[in-house]
Description:
This protein is an alpha/beta fold. It is 32% helix and 22% strand. The protein has 9 helices and 9 strands. It has a 9-stranded mixed beta sheet with strand order 1-2-3-5-4-6-7-8-9, sandwiched between helices. The longest helix is centred in the last third of the chain and has 21 residues, at 260-280.
Amino acid sequence: MLEIVSEHACFGGLQRFYRHDSREIGLPMRFSVFLPPQAGHGPVPALFYLAGLTCTEETFMIKAGAQRVAAELGLALIAPDTSPRGANVDGESDSWDFGLGAGFYLDATEPQWAPHYRMYSYLHELRELVTQALPVDARHIGIFGHSMGGHGALTVALKRPDLFRSVSAFAPIAAPSQCPWGQKAFTGYLGADQRAWAQYDATLLMKGLKTPFPAGILIDQGLGDKFLADQLYPEAFEVACQTAAQPLTLRRQAGYDHGYYFIQTFVEDHLRFHAAQLARSTPDERV
Length: 287
């Protein structure tokens, strides 16, 4: 059952924050939803937004400034939390880039993390929940995200393009098997066997596919991003897309860093990109 934590009028629609008991996580989880005014007349297309390290379900809704354009386009926005809360796993709060606020949108297999750190499966649970309980059109859902959430958006979309029909990202961790953030998370959650990592690495996933999103993928990357050289590797994903014949628009934005001023600047482009794809998207028409 969904519990509304708070509700706020916003651009003619509703900004809501929810809590519910999660089947996959085994704990209460929080998420946020912006319902545009068009949702008062029937189900609307929706975008899942996956936030980055240390963020919560509130971060995007408060900082990105996306509701105005979402209201114009008739898009619902859905943002889950970035990890379980209350699992009380030993060491989960020892560092900012692993554990709390850093679930990496995967299903952990290491014994201490596996019972609750199941963010990949939780995203699918949440998708089912919102399409059943809210005026969200299950046939027209896209996904995007930032940093760790950009990694999550790309991997979730590449694994289930039948469910998520458009995908974009801001400064994604595009090749986590190659960078310190990803190696730390994958080793901790999945163990040392790197063969298990490939299912959550967008660059490696793309190499095994053939044009999964014919209408294209959009990525924005700030060239003033201090994490670009050592953590993000968009160029590796770009090469993988070329191998997979996947259309990719990778925009390298001079002067922009890794934060939400960057996201605010380009979020409208991403919403319009998704709206255009979802408007033409049916189960058999993603071209």
